[in-house]
Amino acid sequence: MIARTRFAPSPTGRLHLGHALAAQLAHALARRLGGAFLLRHEDIDTTRVREEYYAAIEEDLRWLGFAWHGEALRQSTRLAAYAAALEKLRALGVVYPCYCTRRAIQHEVAAMLGAPQGPEGPLYPGTCRSLAAAARPRQPDSASTHAWRLDAHKAAALTGPLSFCDLRHGTLEVQPDLLGDVVLARKDIGTAYHLAVVVDDAYQEISHVTRGEDLLPATHVQRLLQALLGLPAPLYLHHPLLRDETGRRLAKRHDSLAIAALRHAGMSAAAVLAQLAASTPSSGGLVPAAADE
Ligand code: GLU
Ligand code: ZN
Predict the structure, then answer these.
(1) pLDDT digits (tens, 9 = 90+) for 175-204
(2) Residue nearest ligand 1's atom 8 by CA
(3) Which-ligand-closest: CA of 40?
(4) Residues 75 and 90 in one domain
(5) What does the DSSP 8-state code read for residue 82?
(6) Model pTM?
(7) Ligand nearest to the CA of 99
C-alpha cells in the first residue's frame, strides 16, 4: 500500500496554528511512510466559502514548506459523486428526509425529557424518522425542500459491529449513534460534511486520515458510512489540539494565530513549526521527523 495523507481545510478563513499542526502531521506522516501528502479544499458550504481563501491557504502551506502532491481537490467540483453516494444510501433504506428547521429541533429538544445527548450537545431527536410517506409535507420532492438524515440504528443493523484503527487510541469500536441521525445532505447544498469526506477520502485513496481529536466522534459516523458504501477504511491519527499555557484550547479564529499574521510579524516558518512542537508536548512523539530534517 502506498501511503497517502491529506490536509482538508475549509476556505472560510486563513490558516491558523491549529491548521498548521494538522498539516504538519499529515505531511510528516506521508514523508515517514514514503507516501504522498494531498490537499483538499472542503468548500461545499458555499454560504461561508470566500474565493480569496483558496489561494491564501495554498500560500501559507507553501511558506510552511508543506508541498502537496498533484492538484488540490475542490469538493465543490464533486457534487455529482456525493449525490450518487446519497442515492446508494437511499436504495439501502438508511436515510430519511427531514423537514425540521433548526428552531423546531431546538424547541422539541427543550420540551423533551431526557433528550438524547451527544459529545457536543443535544442530538437530533428523530422527529422525522418515522414520518410515514403520507404524512410528509406535500411538496415537490426536490432537494431544496428537505435535508436527508442517516438512520443510525437501521444503518448499524445492516452493517453489524464495526471498528476503526487509530494510531494513538488503538482499535475503537464504532458507536453508531454517538452523533445520532446526522444530516448527510443539507437542503441548501445537497450534501454535508460526513458524506463528502467519506466519498473523497476514498476517491483520493487516503490511507491515513490525520486530524484533530475534536473530530474523533465524526469518525464513528464516517466508518459506518464507509461500510454502507463499500469504501475502504483508512487508518486514523487523531491528534491532540493545541492549547495555551493554561491548558485551554486555542480558539480557531484567533487572528493573532493566523499563519499570515505570524509571518507578517517577522516570524520564520521554522520558528512557527518550533512553536507548534512546543505547544503539543503530547504529540511530540507522534510522527518522528524524517531523517533529513
Ligand atoms: N474540513 C475539516 C476542518 O476544517 C476537516 C475535515 C477532516 O479532517 O475530516 O476541520
Ligand atoms: Zn426532521
Answers:
(1) 999 999 999 999 999 999 999 999 999 999
(2) 211
(3) 1
(4) no
(5) H
(6) 0.91
(7) 2
